Amino acid sequence: MNDHISRRYNKDIEDLRNKVLAMGGLVESQLSEAIVAIVSGDSELGLQVARDDYKVNNLEVNIDEECGRILATRAPAAGDLRLIVAIIKTITDLERIGDEAEKIGFLASKLAAMDRPPDSYRELKTLGNHVLHMVRDAMNAFARLDA
Q1: Could you tell me which residue, 7 or 89, shows the higher pLDDT?
Q2: How far is CA 125 from its chain centroid?
Q3: How does pLDDT run across 7-64, given as a tens digit for each residue?
Q4: Angle at 115 between CA 110 and CA 116, to 5 degrees
Q5: Burial (CB count <10 Å: 0-12, 13-18, 19+), residue 56
Q6: Whole-angstrom Cα distance, residue 125 to residue 144?
Q7: Which CATH code fits 7-143?
Q8: What is the residue extent of each domain of the chain?
Q9: Element counts in the chain: helices (H) and strands (E)
Q10: Under the phi-then-psi rule, with left for phi > 0, alpha for psi from -120 to 50, and beta for the rest, what region is 131?
Q11: Cα–chain center distance at 126
Q12: What pLDDT is recorded for position 108?
């Protein structure tokens, strides 16, 4: 990240990065809990994941507004502009992943009410762990500012 004359600008950019990382952590948590809910048949956990989707949505709106404010007031150039554009794209994708976790949560709640053998959805655990690993890798790359 570029070092600017304005400490406030540097702080704004760093705060943006931290908010994106927090959003990524929340999405990882939501996904993980949704997977546990569907595999274990935990209706309450599934509903909790679905109810908590608003947190991810609120973070996306907040970060997007902050990006807009920085673009309008600071007119970032070069690396900072690329970072802000990447943040805008990243939060959109994270919000979509959060929406999918919400859907899985609702589905887990519905499936929990059905009679099924104990290990019916164990394959989903493996698939879900692959997805979690990909999200975690993407967030780690973002944290390192590594393309």
Answers
A1: 89
A2: 19
A3: 889 999 999 999 999 999 999 999 999 999 999 999 999 999 999 999 999 999 999 9
A4: 100
A5: buried
A6: 28
A7: 1.20.58.220
A8: 7-143
A9: 5, 0
A10: alpha
A11: 20
A12: 94
